[in-house]
Request: fold
Amino acid sequence: MSMLTIGAFARACRLSPKALRLYDELELLRPARVDPDTGYRYYAVEQLERARLVAWLRRLGMPLAAIREVCALEPAAAAREIRAFWARVEAETAVRRDLAWFLVDQLEAVAAVAAVPGKDTTMLELRYSAHSDRGLVRPANQDTAYAGARLLAVADGFGPAGGPASSAAVEALRFLDTEEVPAGNVLNLLEEAVRDATDAVRDVADPEENGTTLTALLWTGSQLALVHIGDSRAYLLREGGLFRITHDHSVVQSLIDEGRLTPEEAGSHPQRALLLKALATGDPDLKLHDTRRGDRYLLCSDGLTSVVPEHRIRELLTAGQDPEETVRSLVDAANAAGGPDNISCVVADVV
Reply:
């Protein structure tokens, strides 16, 4: 067996001697031999392939614990784990990117107003409509949809007490529709309201058997604060483009994120209805969303998105109808596709 000193091995695999000593202590990359008198480490040439893999994975930013697991796998399985890791990195980067651009837009808007003394800032408002439909198959409607001057919400209940759960969640937020919402602490206000909604759901339904999704937008007059948990969705229609601004907390979405499933395959997956998180069983996503005059928002339960493709949703949202007519058209489209689930839609225009 050809042996290399730790210095020569470090140069060959592009890991520092310090890193090699750390990986030895963590049992991630043990030397082939340690001199019993001097404690000096020697490595086999055959270890270079594993060492280079460790170096590359560290450059990707993979944690050491995950690297240990990848190195123990066969090449095909290791490739799948690396693909899944990078899908998670990209998803997290996208969230940070959205936050960064939001902050850039906000600060530039503040700077623009400050640069023009006495400039009048016109407040925007919402025009909105909400409708919830039982569909053509389910015996009862467990969805709840709400739209007001400040609050938009959709909740999709599940389990024997799913209807009371979704209703309780939305009812707990309705006080926000009648209060002035200060833009500075809107996320804190919404977070507190969601905690109350969580308690309300637990009061009416056993979370072991029942629950609800919740997707809601709170309007400040210039911004929308979003809270989201589950697989109901929020979309933004801006300048003709349709953008999903929520991320499903579902089994199939996690498989898509990890590269193990395509979006097309997800539609027929046997576990497509299984949630990873719901209100009272996980932490919701909370973020601010900047708005523009002319924006149109859609909140909906999966009774719409599971049977009506996004290109058709975009067609209906851009058909030139007002929010009430648009909501009816979306519900009708879901029922025309079989209406296998309850359907709830909220459409709001920024004017």
The first strand starts at residue 3 and ends at 5. The chain has a mean pLDDT of 89. The chain has twelve helices and 14 strands. The CA atoms of residues 115 and 238 lie 27 Å apart.
